[in-house]
Each structure stands twice: as C-alpha cells, then as structure tokens.
Amino acid sequence: IAMTEYHTIYKGPEGETTQWDDIQRKLGNRPEKDPVWKPQAYTPEAEPTRGTERLDGEDAEGLEEAEDEFSDDRFLEQYRQRRIQELQASVSRPRFGSLEEIRRDDFVAQVTNAGEGVWVVCHLYSDSTRACGIMNQCLMELAPRYPATKFLRIVASNCIPGYPDANTPTLLLYRGGKCEQTLVGLERFGSQATSPDLIAISLNRFGAVCGDPDDAAVAAEQLAGVASHHPGDAAGNDAGSGILSVDELDRIARHRGLSIRLTSLGPAYRIACRDEGGAILGVTQGFKVPLFPILHADTMQVQRPRRMGAGGKPAGGPAPRFKRQGLHGLGLLLFVATLAHAAACGCQRIEMLAINDAEDTHARLVRYYRRLGFVARRDVSGERLSDVPHLLVWGGRGLRMDGDVAALTRRWAPVVRAGAQSEA
Q: What biological-process terms (Gene Ontology) are attached (predicted)?
C-alpha cells in the first residue's frame, strides 16, 4: 500500500526573514537578501503655462486649435465675475418686509432718502375711511411678499395738514427721492372688491414696484387697459362679482374689435378669439373630466394682433386698438372665458400644466399662473412610474397646477367687467 505524505509549506510575506536566517547571514553562512522593491513617491507634473507667449510661433491651424481653449477660460472668468456681482448685489440690496407706520418728521428720512433704486409705497390714510382699512390690509399682505419694496403708511392729515379724507386712500410711489406717481382713491384698484394681487399688478404698471423688472413687465401687460375703474364701480360690485357668461365676454370683446366663440363636442371644448378680419388671435381648449367636476385646460395659445391694411390684408405693426391692452390682456380674457365655460359645465376645479420645455420659460409660466390664483399640485418630472398617466394626458413634463373655479371667478370677473366699463 502506497502512502502519501501530505504537508503544507507556509511562506511569509516577501522580504520577511526569520531570526535563524538573520543569524546565518550575520555569520556569513548565507548571502545577503535582495532589497524589497518600493514604488517611487508620486510627484505631479507641472502643468504647462497657458500664457499667450506660446502662441507667437503658431501657424493658422495651431491658433485655431487654441481658440476654444482660451474662449473657455474667458467664459469661466466672466461667469465667475458675474456670480460675484450678483451675490454682492443680493447682499447689499435693502430688505424690509412689513408695513411701517411713520410720522411727518420721519417722511424725508424714510421716503425721500430711502435709498438708491428703492421703491417706496407710502399710504396716506384716514382712520374714519373704510377704504383705507381695506388698503392697509392689502399692503400688510404685500409687504412680506416683496421685501425689496418699502411699504409705509402715515395719517394723511399728519403728513399734509388739511388733506381731505375724501381723497383717501392715497398711494405715493417714490423712487430715488422723486415722487413717481400719486394714486388717489381705491376705485382704480377695483374699489372694495380689490385684492393684494390686483393692487400689486396695478402698481407694476408704473415699474418694478412689486417684484423684479421681468415680473413687472409681465404684470403690466397682463392688466394694461383692464384694471382701470370708474368711481361709480363701488355701487356695482355685487353685480360685477357674479359669474360671467361666454356671451357676455363676447360683447365685451366686441368693444375692442374682437369676438369670442365657444364650440364644444361632448366633453371637449374650444374657445377662439378672432379680430375684425377673422384672424385667430388666441385659442384655448380642453375637456371636462368625465364623472368628476374638473375642467382639464389643455392648451392656451395667444398671438399678437395684426394691423389690417387695404383689402383686408395684414399690415405691419400691432393693431391700434390693442396697443395698450397688451398680449396678457387678451390672455386674461381667454382665461375668464374658460372659467365661464367651467362654471356652465358645473366644474368646481380647473387643472392645467405649466409646461417645462425650458427653465426660464417654465419659471415665468409658474409665476404667471400663481399670480392668476393657481396652486401647485404635482411635479410631473417623468422620473417616477406614477408620472406615466400624467405624461400620457398632458403630453409633456411640467408642474400641474389647480385652481378653484368659484374663487378665480370672484377674483377676475370684476376686473374684466370694470375694464369694459372704463372703455365704454
């Protein structure tokens, strides 16, 4: 029987020796061990300088290859400097955030010398006037929304001795030590049916009083020529706060040389606005959600009106009657027409999607719809499985926003009616 001896040889790490090996080497019985290999210490190579001197000897092809390299450097430096300036400006920009009470002795320091580029809204009020209480309440809500604007109030008789209570409330708009506007009465803001948003939009017609210049431009166009009110509007507030019909909106539009027509097929609807020549200026469409009191507003497209020349052919430039009403005035008319159709269908809620095709456009859409009164409900990003039904319904990514039909109607119907009365 053959026997096999199994054994294991243990070998230590490379370069490690035993005490016996060290004694034998010391006595000269064994050769010296080989040195253990160690990698050299890492030393980073010096990056070549990117000065312009190296370009002196380059030909046309070499200069073309180096062009992108230097343009990237310039772009990054410009971007860095711009961000530094933006951060410095944001830190140095004054912030307020509340409606402050001042006295006559404080007027020059608080209003005239408020600071370079600072908008000041000073309310001259009277305790005995109900409209002043409404204005104070609205300004108290606006002040924390727009902390870059200074909101103040002062008793009218304390600011200007003998100032009549009949002229209160009065808003003084100051900027750079100069009085830009004097707005007397609550009627121009919607009388006693006004709101903080309507006041902010009305103020933005004179500049970036509430918000940045881009927001002011959007808001100024939104209600240009529509937010003016007559002194007699207060008596008609009850009538002006009711639900508008599409037919009534069509009569209002005809005073501007436009027409509004509603067509529907089952739950689907389409509202088109045309000019006197029959050209379509704006279209909004969608459908009523079956079995639910919800109106799905799919799209709203608005075009700039065209001037009609001889023979009914379009001529250059905007239509003269629409010059002061602005693009967003037409958008508001279509929006209120959509509300009218939603109310007629028994819908309690209207839903829409602020499409996200580009970041800057998306941000403006969200600001615009929030200003109208919509509330963000869901971010349809397409990154979740639950977004698939929304993507199929809306056809794209964006922020889904909802609005209460009754609340939106109470808010904007008086504005459209008042605009029609002021143009009559």
A: protein folding
Confidence band for 301, pLDDT divided at 50, 70 and 90:
confident
C-alpha closest to that of 335 among 318, 352, 355: 352
The amino acid sitting at 375 is V
**CA angle at residue 306 from 424 to 259, to 5 degrees?**
45
> Does the model's pTM come out above 0.70?
no
Distance CA 377, CA 387 (A): 13
**What span, in angstroms and rounded, lies between the C-alpha atoms of 276 and 129?**
45
Task: Classify 357 as helix, strand or coil.
Answer: coil
Residue corresponding to tokens 């629409």: 322
User: What is the set of domains in the chain, with CATH numbers?
Assistant: 99-233 (3.40.30.10), 241-423 (3.40.630.30)
Measured CA to CA in angstroms, residue 393 lies from 158, 271, 376 at distances of 60, 20, 17
Ranges 3-17, 355-369, 396-410, most confident:
396-410
Token pair for 141: 């809500």
Helix, strand, or coil (residue 379): strand
CB 249 within 8 A of CB 417: no
Question: Element (H or E) spanning 294, and its range?
Answer: strand 294-302
pLDDT above 70 for 389: yes
Place of tokens 């708009």: 173
Cα separation, 411 vs 148, whole angstroms: 26
The Cα-based distances of 373 to 197, 347, 352, 400 in angstroms read 9, 17, 12, 13
